[in-house]
Automatic annotation (TrEMBL):
The protein's name in its UniProt record: Lipopolysaccharide heptosyltransferase family protein
GO cellular component, one term: cytosol
Record's keyword terms, sorted: Glycosyltransferase, Transferase
Cited Pfam families: Glyco_transf_9
Signal peptide annotation: none
Taxonomic lineage: Bacteria, Pseudomonadati, Bacteroidota, Cytophagia, Cytophagales
GO BP: lipopolysaccharide core region biosynthetic process
A molecular function GO annotation: ADP-heptose-lipopolysaccharide heptosyltransferase activity
Amino acid sequence: MKRHYSGTPRETIPLRILDFFIDIYVRWFYRKREKAPISAVPKVLIASLGHMGDALTVSYLFPIIRQKYPNAIIDIISPSWCKAVNEHNPYVRHTLVIDHYLSNRNKIGFWQKLKRHYQTFQQALPFLRDEHYDFYLDVRTSYGVSHFVLPFTNVKKAVGFNRRGMGGFLDVELEIPQKDGNYHHFEAYRALLKEIGVDTKLEEVVPYFTIDASITWEQVQSKLPLSVTKPYILLFPETGEPHRQMSNSFWVNVLKEVLEKSDYSVVLCGQTNLSAQIVKGIDRATASQFSEKVIDASKKLSIQELAFLSTKAECALTLDSFPEHLCCIFCETITIYKASGLPFFPIANYPVLLFHTHFLSKNAAYVRRNVTVHYREKIETPEVSQLIVAKITTEKKVL
């Protein structure tokens, strides 16, 4: 079949050259491997070498698989930076850690990323070589796929997408199920599931995240510089890609009005000093009038503790990133997409108000009816700011 690669010519030409040699190897050697019937209790290896948001939404597949195969054994291939998402998941037997160099956002050099990729792959190899899987599913449609593990383990049916090379190792190479260049990422997951006899619909998916029972309100409070008073809202002003972030002045203006028009406290969450800059901006804008109601929780709380905090929040303000997907499991969420659209729309338990600039998604219908979507050519405007403030301060629980 003709492969439709994802990426620029600089990225895809090396993939085409690589696939030329892989296809020769597969034709003469790899396809001759012995296969056996699918087991009554299948073992499933699911690969997701992306980031934390990917790891979270991929986990929604696990209970769906168990509905079809109640005793299925599920192992996953996941990078080290997703450990916090996977470690308490009740459906996962074993996690194989591989830090793919293409997905590695650590502030290290390219060769260090390659070294880390090689080291983690070597550490995973003994387990892979000893295992026999019925199914292999790789959810990645861009950047790093994990098809390179297939010659080193035993898999009866390998399914994945052919956009990022090494598709020759797959038994089933899938195309992206897109319409007019647009699709939701769960439709790609659904295509994979169909190949193992499992069918589901996006509107039926129930998102979840397992919070460790040992997490307590007192434990969370003890890590913060100020006591969190209820009711409160959460702000996550960061993403893994800074170009998708809003300006500090935008958040300062929004939070200033929220504090003035409501009795909410605000908890700012993240992994950088961005929140501290926003807190300073609020103090200047309000003459420190609300200093006891603005808490900088950046770099102080674990993912488990942030999830716990979201269960008691009135609302979360997020961007297109992992916090959005996490918060909308547990509370109402307002989210802003500065550079993406339908492919990453949230799978939510609670109502979501979403603003985006993605032209392809301008008129896209979204089957999750608790997500209200607004397209804007520009996001950082007084109009959007006022709509966000109004939703928080006047409608409160009803977004």
